[in-house]
Task: structure prediction
Amino acid sequence: MAKIRNATKKVGSVVHGPSLLTEHDIYLFKEGNHFQLHEKLGSHIMTFEGKEGTYFAVWAPNAERVSVIGDFNDWNPNAHPLAVRWDGSGIWEGFIPGVEKGALYKYHIESKYHNYKADKGDPFALYWEISPRTASLVWDLDYEWDDGVWMKNRRMHNRLDAPLSIYEVHLGSWRKAVEEDNRFLTYREIARQLVDYIKQMGFTHVELMPVMEHPFYGSWGYQIIGYFAPTSRFGTPQEFMYLIDCLHQNDIGVILDWVPSHFPSDIHGLVYFDGTHLFEHMDPRRGFHPDWKSYIFNYGRNEVRNFLISNALFWLDMYHADGLRIDAVASMLYLDYSRKEGEWMPNEYGGRENIQAMNFLKRLNEVIYGSFPDAQTVAEESTAWPMVTRPVYVGGLGFGMKWNMGWMHDTLEYFTKNSVHRKYHQNLLTFSIWYAFSENFVLPLSHDEVVHGKGSLVGKMPGDDWQKQASLRLLLGFMFTHPGKKLLFMGGEFAQWREWIHDESLDWHLLQYKPHQGIQHWVQDLNRLYRREPALYELDFEREGFAWIDFSDADNSIISFMRRGKSAEDIIVVIGNFTPVPRNNYRIGVPSRGFWKEVLNSDAEEYGGSGQGNFGGIEATPTPHHGKAHSIALTLPPLSILVLKKMHSEGE
Result:
């Protein structure tokens, strides 16, 4: 971690001549179309008239007076006042000679209204003090990237017809230095270990829960104060770049969790920034979030849209992020989200839709895909809002993908039921296919499902320990073979028994035990199969990529289906037995004759199963079944999923 300098160098008075802002910048800023604001506002190290120093610029249109305070002037609000621009933009600016990289600073703002005075962190700061300290730091983003090959070719990794298997990570609790008083690992330490682990497990991408600076660690990063800075808890901006660089050099994509839906009430942050509701709505029926006790951005304000869209592009550009997962989209789209009657304001047409937020999201996606066509945006949207992942020009919101919350809720509800009752709830397994191709879905088994008393994934399962672990293997196998991209939160891949606790490391010690080793091995093999077989990913979002063999055998709690790729030869057959009762000579129809190889069996002994199966595969016979001319009679192990593939002989 970089050492912050002790600022003893003499600094000069504010110089009001230099500016990074042109008239065109101001025009775009007022219009709501300036999406590189991070290049203009904030603190920028520069040289002016032979003097080295730092240029400061901040938007505070309702301020009477703004000055820069810091360790270089003993936090004196009278030492370095900024000047407001003449053009009505509300931007205050000035150059202070002698202020160097590493200097601590804030903006002292005195408002025109309510006799309000506050010391604010810089909304565009690149680096912040480690919480609970609250100052911004003068910094730069100089870094020599070594991920050119990835950046040149990442389109093929991020395509909608590519395999996307995402490992969701909370950096502060993935691993800790347990022997060193349980301290956080640094970005550099995480880089070495995470790269090795992702390569071992076979995931294609990592999704990092919000790394933007947040004062309250217990918010998991979702209460952001420093939108343009990675948290200093784990190191410098350059060290975070190193983490992404290492992942890219090893062909691992990086998706960042991004939160444009709300921000916290910390006085040094965005709230009531210049003595008025500048970034947030003034009316609490639109400006205050009842669930998270936080403030909601005013999406109808041009300058606020500039701020947010600039921020999204910033992470894609300066940090080489491959995608953004947009948090809490449903809370943005609905004015009555989590509100009772009388606690919300309808739109101008009397409806509950937040038209300003909808237009913001459309513009956000247009700009992102226009600037970074090889990146992806993923919406966490939990309702039936139509066309979330359809282009803006056909009336959609323009996202690349959307979390399939319906699949997640139904599937977990089914799996938590005792196996003797599952036959009455078969629809929970099968209903998702009715809408599976209405959007470009990601199947999320995320952090939200293993906290707040919900139990871990394996802990949700009924039965004894063996049945719980077998059911987890079955759940993961079902996810990897169901249409949609994949997301698994850390710890689920080795069946951590405890819920996730953000203050503690994952329970890596469990991997000394064979059952946990077996489930980890199962996830490795699922990832290998998934990436190897185009039938499991190429047509994830097309109806042609899926066909039921039989979804109606509720009495036995068995389903069977096919996955197809773009090539007619790419066919995978999947059979799931959702009870602990093995089934012998269970017949299913298959699309052709020949040998069907058992390429994966979740009940294999190496995964912790009972070792039942079909001796590597089975020859189809000309026995019509399920409307097909050929069929196979299988042994279905208890609580298992089988994956079979047709082996083609020469001349076929």
